[in-house]
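W.,

You were right to be curious about this one. When I first looked at the sequence I had no strong expectations either way, so I just let the prediction run and decided to look at it fresh. Below is the sequence, 114 residues in total, followed by the output.
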Amino acid sequence: MDNINDLHEKNCIPCKGGIPPLDISEIHKYVKKVDGWDIKKKEKETYFLEKKFSFKNFSESQDFINKICDVSEEQGHHPDIIFGWGYATVQIFTHKIKGLVESDFILAAKIDKI
């Protein structure tokens, strides 16, 4: 496995489907490489990453979200984002395979660098 500092330097690889998502033991190895992301589970065993961020006001939240959008467009990998006055919640998973792959952790590492 790569050094924790290397994950943010990789690029997301677009998923065309047809590959299995990471299993829970692989997910636990990767989650150690990102800072403060929680592993959550949706219906039908679909795992995703989630992290909550706090800010002083709406403007700081919006600025952060805009930076995430720029990175997401650059990487071709788009998280689900909920934000408002003083907060943002980011959820990441690969929709085409309904689970997590390395690119999800790469995006999380890139968001942590913002």
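Here's what jumped out at me. The radius of gyration is 14 Å. And, maybe more interesting for your project: Residues 7 and 114 are 14 Å apart (CA to CA).

Coffee later to discuss?

I.
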